[in-house]
């Protein structure tokens, strides 16, 4: 089997400390990303699941490329390969999406939802062509998926939902999809 092409994978996920239901799948996904030689592109924080993902990618041997934001810079992780500080959240979102080859959304709160919907809205308008995966850890996004499917079925989306986002149940499935998509595009 040929080695996967190294990718810069932007991960949006919670900055909160959560229980094992969320930390274990996050760590598992992160280690797969690191072991495959990919770079983590993320919000740069050393808190909650954002720390878990960075620790896991590091442990797997991958690179860390952080994009913090001025008012949160005191939470930025020290041990990184690169850290950029944006002036505000809007600039940070644009930088994260520009730096990445692909986006994976893990369990998160409002910050994650804001980032995920921005990526999907840009895809909807054809302004962002990198793949977006929603990783439905522990069924966390069942409610959001129901809402998105209703938008799709009832004519709220100008493009099919399947063209906007790939829904995965496991980190391995998410990564396999990205590696296949990148190979086809390359
Ligand atoms: C302890 C503490 C306040 C840590 C600093 N907090 C943060 N640092 C960096 N990015 C963040 C922070 N909170 C939210 N974000 C952004 O919003 C997302 C997480 O927000 P949430 O926890 O889902 O809503 C992340 O993908 C990140 O890009």
Question: Care to describe what's here?
Answer:
GO terms for molecular function: hydrolase activity, hydrolyzing N-glycosyl compounds. Keywords: Cytokinin biosynthesis, Hydrolase. It is built from 7 helices and 7 strands, in the order βαβαββαβαβααβα. The longest helix has 16 residues, at 20-35. It has a 7-stranded parallel beta sheet with strand order 4-3-2-1-5-6-7, with helices on both faces. Strand 2, helix 2 (48-60) and strand 3 form a beta-alpha-beta unit. Helix 1 packs parallel to helix 2. The radius of gyration is 15 Å and the shape is globular. It has one domain: Rossmann fold. It has 186 residues and is α/β, with parallel strands linked by helices. The structure holds N-(3-methylbut-2-en-1-yl)adenosine 5'-(dihydrogen phosphate) (ZJS).
Question: Which regions contain 5 or more consecutive residues with pLDDT less than 50?
Answer: none
Helix content: 40-55%
Number of domains: 1
Judging from the principal axes of the Cα atoms, what is the shape? globular
Largest sheet: 7 strands, parallel
Catalytic activity: N(6)-(dimethylallyl)adenosine 5'-phosphate + H2O = N(6)-dimethylallyladenine + D-ribose 5-phosphate; 9-ribosyl-trans-zeatin 5'-phosphate + H2O = trans-zeatin + D-ribose 5-phosphate
Enzyme class: hydrolase
GO molecular function, one term: hydrolase activity, hydrolyzing N-glycosyl compounds
Pfam family, one: Lysine_decarbox
Characteristic key phrases:
about 190 residues; alpha/beta; seven-stranded parallel β-sheet; 7 helices
């Amino acid at each position: 089997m040929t080695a996967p092409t190294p990718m810069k994978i932007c991960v949006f996920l919670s900055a909160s400390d959560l229980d094992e239901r969320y930390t274990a799948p996050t760590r598992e996904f992160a280690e797969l990303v690191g072991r495959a030689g990919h770079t983590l592109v993320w919000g740069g924080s050393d808190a909650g699941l954002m720390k878990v993902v960075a620790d896991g990618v590091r442990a797997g041997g991958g690179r860390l490329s952080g994009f913090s934001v001025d008012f949160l810079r005191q939470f930025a992780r020290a041990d990184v390969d690169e850290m950029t500080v944006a002036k505000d959240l809007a600039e940070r979102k644009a930088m994260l999406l520009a730096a990445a080859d692909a986006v994976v959304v893990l369990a998160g709160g409002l910050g994650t939802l804001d980032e995920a919907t921005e990526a999907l809205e840009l895809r909807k308008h054809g302004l962002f062509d990198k793949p977006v995966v929603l990783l439905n850890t522990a069924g966390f996004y069942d409610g959001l998926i129901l809402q998105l499917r209703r938008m799709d079925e009832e004519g709220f989306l100008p493009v099919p939902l399947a063209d906007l986002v790939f829904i995965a149940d496991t980190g391995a499935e998410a990564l396999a999809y990205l590696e296949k998509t990148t190979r086809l595009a390359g």
